[in-house]
Amino acid sequence: MRERPKGDYSLFTDALLRSSVSSVSAYVRLLLPSVEMLVKISTTALPPRLRGRRDVDAASSGWGTRLARARARLAKAWRLLAEGLGDEAGEEAWRATIDAINAAAIAAWGIEAKSHQALRIIVAELYREGLDIRSEFGVAEALHNNYYDPGHPPETLQAMIANVERLIDRVEAWITTRTEKPRLPLIQPLAPLLPANLIRSITIPILRPVTRYG
């Protein structure tokens, strides 16, 4: 009976690692059809009113990026209001609104609006998807109009910007609910082949969002 070589287990560990990687690769290949199916659902569910519009483009960034920018612009709006620049604060809140709505559109359909009218249609379609920000959007439009035709006192602007903050909060909550997916179970026959640390690493939620992150 041949004795096992002493001291050098590098070949053994290398072979084990390669075997594990191959097993993981096979596992991922089994999942690809499901991934493709989910992606197709996400990209072909574009509402009829948004199809073929020149003012609707494929997303240029992820929804996380847009949502973060909406938060940053909202903070700037509050700061401008505190500095007595109410008209500019309202316009910055309007820009935050655009980013938040585009974040929702990216999460839902992978698109973004390039015009005011496209934003209005997206808001209406988001309502059909369970996100009702119609009233808040109307207030944000009034903030935008106030930039060109000033007249609202600071107290009113404060309440209006608070509406924009509520819009952003609702968008974020809706996106979080929409993109959370259950963890994929590890295929039972494969588990004994993998080291424990590798099992932990591949049971992360591979399919959590079907849309792009920022």
TrEMBL record:
Family matches, as InterPro entries: PaREP1
Superkingdom field: Archaea
Protein name, as recorded: PaREP1 family protein
